[in-house]
User: What shape does this take?
Amino acid sequence: QKEVEQNSGPLSVPEGAIASLNCTYSDRGSQSFFWYRQYSGKSPELIMFIYSNGDKEDGRFTAQLNKASQYVSLLIRDSQPSDSATYLCAVMESSASKIIFGSGTRLSIRP
Amino acid sequence: SAVISQKPSRDICQRGTSLTIQCQVDSQVTMMFWYRQQPGQSLTLIATANQGSEATYESGFVIDKFPISRPNLTFSTLTVSNMSPEDSSIYLCSVEETRKGVYEQYFGPGTRLTVT
Assistant: This one.
C-alpha cells in the first residue's frame, strides 16, 4: 500500500513567520510531487509542484524535495492570515498515472 | 488551467435512492478522475474515467455502486447508487493537464452529498 504521510496539525504560526509543512512518501519510484491548498468548504487548489531534488520557489512558497529521504516540504514565508487552510501533499505513483494524497496539515496563521 | 464545473453543487437525498453528478470541462482532456472526501478526511480516488473505455475503479469501489460514464472528452458523470448515510461526502471531479512535460491535476468545485 503506497502511502503519503503528513502531520495533521493544527500547526499554528504567527503572522509574518515561516510556516513549514512536511510530508513523507513510501513509493521510492515516485517522480512528481504536489502541494494543494484547501480552504474550508472549498475544493483543493494546486499551488506548487516539484519534480527535481532541491528547492523550487514561487513567490512566498518554496517546495523542497529530497528523493533519497523520500521527503517533501513546503515553506511559506511571511505567513498571512489568508494562508490559513489545510495543505495536502500529493505524490504521483510510479506505476500509474494517479495521485495519492496525504491526509493534510491544517495550518492556522495567528495575527 | 481547465475550468471545471459540477452539478449539482449539493444535494440531500434519501437512503436507497441514486444521484448522478455531472462534471463538465471547458477543454478536451484525456483523463478524468472522481474522488470522494469524507468529512475531515483527505481525498480518496474512486475511479479513473477515460473516454471510450470502461472506468478503472480503485480498491473498495465497484461499478455497481458507482457507475461512471465518459461519453466524450469534456464530460463525465458519476452515479452514487442505492445510497446510505455512509455515502455522505463531497464528490470531486478532477482532470489532468500536461503542458510542456509538466503534469498538473485540477479539481472541480465538488458536490456535497448528504444522505438521510
User: Anything to note?
Assistant: The CA atoms of residues 97 and 104 of chain B lie 5 Å apart. Chain B has a mean pLDDT of 93. Chain B touches chain A at residues 1, 31, 33, 41-43, 45, 48, 90, 92, 96, 102-110 (CB under 8 Å). Chain B has no helices and eleven strands.
